[in-house]
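Thread: adenosine-5'-diphosphate complex, take 2
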Amino acid sequence: MEKDPKNIIDEVTQSEYKYGFFTDIEMDTAPKGLNEDIIRFISLKKNEPQWLLEFRLDAYRKWLGMTEPTWAHLHHPPINYQDIIYYAAPKRKKELSSLDEVDPELLDTFKKLGISLEEQKRLSGVAVDAVIDSVSVKTTFSDTLEKKGILFCSFSDAVQKYPDLVKQYMGSVVPSDDNYFAALNSAVFTDGSFCYIPKGVRCPVELSTYFRINAANTGQFERTLIIGDEGSYVSYMEGCTAPMRDENQLHAAIVEIIALKDAQVKYSTVQNWYPGNKKGEGGIYNFVTKRGICKGNNSKISWTQVETGSAITWKYPSVVLMGDNSVGEFYSVAVTNNYQQADTGSKMIHLGKNTKSTIISKGISAGYSNNSYRGLVKMTKRAENSRNFSQCDSLLLGDKCGAHTWPYIKTENKSSIVEHEATTSKISDDQLYYCNQRGISTENAIGLIVNGYAREVLKQLPMEFAVEAQKLLAVSLEGSVG
Amino acid sequence: MLVIKNLRVAINGKEILKGVNLEVKPGEVHAIMGPNGTGKSTLASVIAGRDVYDITEGEIYFMGKDLTELSVEERASEGIFLGFQYPVEIPGVSITNFMRTAVNEQRKYKGLDPMPAGEFLAKMEEKKKLLDIQAKLANRSVNEGFSGGEKKKNEIFQMAMLEPKLAILDETDSGLDIDALKIVANGVNMLRRPDNAFLVITHYQRLLDYIVPDIVHVLYDGMIVRTGGKELAIELEEKGYEWIKAGLV
Ligand SMILES: Nc1ncnc2c1ncn2[C@@H]1O[C@H](COP(=O)(O)OP(=O)(O)O)[C@@H](O)[C@H]1O
Ligand SMILES: [Mg+2]
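Output below.
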C-alpha cells in the first residue's frame, strides 16, 4: 500500500540520522538504493559545504512527495529507484592495449562516422601514445581560458573553488522541485560542468566537456551550470557523435543557463546514448531538464540539439525570456528508429517586452518508434509586442512508426504574435528512385534526404559538430527502409 | 552497347510494351518518337530498372551484361543515365552535395577512391560553364523551386558530371523555350563522343533540329512501328501520327 507522501516526509525528516553504516569514507561505491544516508555519503565523499548537503536533502524530501510524470507519450516498465547505485567513485576505465580488444560493432560505427583512429582509441579507452596525449592539448586550452578570466571546470571543483557563484545560481533556473526528475537529480547529482564567462568577455573557443581536465564519467546524474555575465558570449558543446554506452539505464540530468544583460549563450548537444537493440531491449532512459533564463535585457539563449540515441528521451530545453528584447531559440532534430521513443520539444516563456522566440523542430521516425513534439509558448501580460515562430515537421520512414505534435499556446496580451506551422511528410519512392538512378544506394539516399530535411537545424551547429552530426543521422537510420 | 530483344512489359497486369527490339551502338544518337501514352517513358524506366514494371518476356543487355540482374544504382554505375521527364525535388540537399555523393558512389562501384574535393569542384565549374549555368544554381537544393527549364538544364548538368556511356533523355525538350532548348542541345552535342550513345525521347521534331539523330524510331502502342534516318522525323512532323496509325490499319 502506498504511504501518504506527507507522512513519508515527516518520517524521513524526523528519523534519527543513522550514520554508522557509511562512516567508511574509503568505500568506492554506495550500496543500492536511495535514502538520506546515501545522500549524506555522496556529499561527504565530495567534501561539500553544509548548504549543499541541505540543498540535496531538501530536494530528496520533495522528491519523496512527488510522483513520476505520466503525461508524456512514453511507455516503459516502472523504474525501481531502490535498485540503482547512486554513488560510484569515477573509475578509470580498464585500459586496453589495442583496438583489437574493442567491440567490433563499436569500431564499425566509429568507421562509419569517420572518427579518426586516435580518437577511436581515446573513446574506447585504448592507451594512447605519449606524443598525442590529450592532456597537453587540454592544458593549452585551459591557459587560453584563464587569461580571459573564464571559469570552466567540473561541477565538483566549482563547489570547492567558486562556492559563492554556485550557491547564487544553482537551482535558480530549475528549482529542486521543478519536476520529479529534477528533484531526483538535485538530491543525488554526482558531477557535471561549470562555466562562468565574465563581463564583456567573448569566449574565443567552443567550450566542450571533452576539453575539461579530469572529466569523469558522469553520465547518469549530470549537472551543468553556465553563467554568461553582462555582454559576454559563449558557445558550449555537450556530448559527442560516437555511440556512448553506459551500464546505468536511468539518466536524469539538469542544465541551467543564466544570461545576464546583453549576454549570449549558445548550447549545442549531440545525444547518442545507447538506444537499445533492434528488438527494443536495453537502452538508456534519458529524462533531462534543460532551461535557460534570459535574465537581462537584450540577452539571448539558443538551444540546438541532435537527438539520436537513448531508448527513451524526455527533454524540453526551454527559455524564460525575462529581460526586455531578449531572444530564445530552439533547434532540434530528433531521430527515432526501431523501438526508440522520444517526447521532446521546448518551452518559451515570454515575460519581457519585445521578446522573440523561434522553435524549429524536425522529427524523423523509422521502424516501430514513436516521436513526439511537445511545446509550450506562453506570452504573459507584460510581454507586449513579443513574437514566436514555431515550425514542427515530422518525417516518417515506413508505416509502423508514429509522429505526434502537441503544441500548446497561451497568450495573455493582444500585441504579441504566435505563429505555428506543422507538416508531416514521407520520403517518396520517386525521390529514392531519382537518387538510385544517379548511382546512390538507397541507404545513402535516405541519409542524404534526411540531412537535407534537417539542414535548417544542422547549420546551427558549430562546424566541429556539423559534419559528424550529418554522418550520425545517416548511421542512425541504417536498415530502416528496404 | 544496348541490345533489347522482344521486350514485353506490363504494369498491374496491363501490357504496355508489346515486343520492343532495339540496338544502340557506341557513338550513335537514337531518337524515339511517338504520341503520348504510347510507352516511351516506360521503356526508359525499364532500362533504368524501376521495379514497378513486370518484364513478362524478352531481354535487355548493356555492354554484354544482363541488365535485369542489376539494381537501379548498379545500372547507373555501369554507365546508364536517365534524364527524367519530371525531375523530383529533394529539399535541403544542394546540387553540389548530391553530385559529390553520386560521383563518389559510382567511383566506389568501380573500385576507385573518392574524387578529391578540389578536382570535384573544378569539374563542377567546367561543366557549369559548358552549359551556361549560373554559379548559384549549384548551391540550391536539387530541383526545389526550379522552373521547368531549370529542372531540365539541371538534368543535363548532372549528365555532364556523371559522363555516362548511355544517356536516355526523356522529353528533355518539353517545357523549354527556344533558348533553353539550344543550351540543352548544345550540351548534348558537346558531350557526344565515339564511345558513348544517346537515346533521345521526344514528342516533337523540334529538338531534332539541334540534336541530329542517326536513327529515328517511332513507338506506337507499345511497339516500334517504324525505324529510319533523320528524314523520318521530318516526315512524321509533316504528316502527323495519324499517318502512322493509318499505315498500321
Ligand atoms: N505507374 C503506372 N501505373 C499504371 N499505368 C501506368 C503507369 N505508368 C504508365 N502507365 C500507363 O502506361 C502507358 C504508357 O505510359 P508512358 O510510358 O508514360 O507513355 P509516354 O511516355 O509515351 O507518354 C499509359 O497508358 C500510362 O497510363
Ligand atoms: Mg513520357
